[in-house]
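Q: A reviewer asked whether we had any structural model of the full assembly, not just the individual parts. We don't, so I'm hoping you can provide one. Inputs are below.
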Amino acid sequence: MTDLKKEWPLFEVFIRSKHGVSHVHAGSVHAADSTMAMENARDVYTRRSEGSSIWVIPSSEITASAPSAKAALFEPSDDKVYRHPTFYEVPDDLEVL
Amino acid sequence: MDQIFTTALRFGDNAMVLGQRLTHWISRSPTIELDIAFGNLSLDLIGQANLFYELAGKLEGNGRSADDLAFLRDASEYYNVQLVEQPNGNFADTMMRQLLYVTYADLVFETMKTSPQKDLAAIAEKAQKEMIYHVRQAGEWVVRLGDGTDESHEKCQAALDNMWPWSHELFAYDDVDEAMVEQGVLPSAEHLKTQWLESLGEVFKRAGLIIRDDNWMPGGGRKGLHSEHLSYILEEMQVLPRTHPGAQW
Amino acid sequence: MDVHHEDKDMRARFDAYVADEGKVEPKDWMPDGYRKTLVRQISQHAHSEIIGMQPEGNWISRAPSLRRKMILIAKVQDEAGHGLYLYSAAETLGVTRDEMDEALLSGKAKYSSIFNYPTLNWADAVIIGWLVDGAAITNQIPLCRCSFGPYGRAMVRVCKEEAFHQRQGYEGMMVLAKGTPEQKAMAQDALNRWWWPAIKMFGPPDSDSPHSDQNTLWKIKRFSNDELRQKYLDMVVKQANALGLTIPDPDLKFDEDTGHWVSGPMDWDEFWAVVKGNGPCNRQRMKHRQKAHDDGLWVREAAVAFAEKQAKRNNQQKAA
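A: Here is a predicted structure for the entire assembly that you could use as a starting point for your response.
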């Protein structure tokens, strides 16, 4: 194919379904620029009124944590159980807590 | 009432024929994303046609449904402008035809939505929201093509040359239109054209395109006079209801 | 530790993790075979959606009412959308859209053979929703739990959206089956031509299906071809009977002991002929796709050229 090099870049699409909730990753689209990415995202991901707001961002701009760093990043918090309310025992019949 | 009926029918027919034309791109466009976009454009337009036809049928009072109006009228009873029946051509031709028409429709609906004629106003209110998006989408593509490669620029300028003559008819008001202007349903032709040119001018400037008017002004759609294309469009569109009269689908 | 051993260890750990219903995300380590299988399956699935736009798309311009026209457009649009969700899922595995397009256009990649049959009358466009989407849903529901996260998530979205496809198809068939004698004849004609291809959509019998075993262990496939076919048959026979249409299988019978429908013999030679490119529409479908690709090249190039110019202008503005 002659246009192999010219593949439109990939954009990640985040959609807020309604006011009051966060933008959630919906998927990705190809587009030549961010204006087109916005239109494509609207056409591809909100055909059933799923959206009230869209973010698009070039996939290449996302910094992701490496899978190999999973243990180092996330396991240290596993034993910090005191951060969770269930760590604390209070009488069941206490109505005010 | 007749004039409102005629106006509803005309805008219904514009939307119907253009919507029908655009559906042809689905599965044939430059990207899959555009296949979906063409689906959305045609769904908006066919939805508008449906509303205008329902209103026309109600005003007429002879029990004709939206489907009857869409599928059981001949080309000479269709009142769309000839611009919308012009062939799709290449992607630039389609986008240019789209830009010329939807820019006009957006401005018309802007007036229509505030008119005292409540039924038309309600349809225009909904339709204009759709048109705003269409105008932006078509404009962006015309700019991309006009300011893209040499090849796309050439094709885009050719598309403008090709579609331009058909745009004159948009402003060739007849008695019905003038009556609608008086009732506040339509903007005056002069005002409309000024705004339309202004809006297009910005797009053409960014696209690097020039209007080359050769004073050819085809028209007649309002009276049911069409280019040769329309009867083919309708023949294809109407084949089933015409072949099976009275059948439900 | 030598590399070979590490791979073996990782492979064993991966297999155990997946067997235990663990989900795999794109950047996790995975065996080459797993990646290849998924790229093949997901891209084939995407190609099927894209080629699948054509047979129904063939009737958009002739849909017999405004309502039917809008439904059909929305449905064909969904197919394009589903193709895109799936291409994105495959791209997370490191394959590009262009590579997948190229594989489809060169004939290296396959798509579902069902779309190589023609839509000759209006009922064909309708029956696809009922029979073909019905089979697709039967296939896709278990895929929502696929071990590969992006594929499973795409399937959840697809299944949610496809719920309307089968219903509109069945409703459309009902109208025809209860309509004029000509309409009923259309519906029967469509059923006669689409029945067997639909039943064969689940692929060859388990006895000669090459990929099933490993894919089952990897939780890519959860039911065998024959199991899925049985599920489908039991559902679709009842639906056909409710329409009052005649299923074109004289040997079809209900087995009282098992409580399942049993079909007559399936012609697998015909199936393989279509898979190998000799169905009624294989060439037409590929030509159509190729033409869209070729005709659109200058547009895609223009968009890139424009984006580059814009970026340059923005940079100059910033610099100034």
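A: Points you may want to mention in the reply: The mean pLDDT of chain C is 94. Chain C touches chain A through 29 residues (CB under 8 Å).
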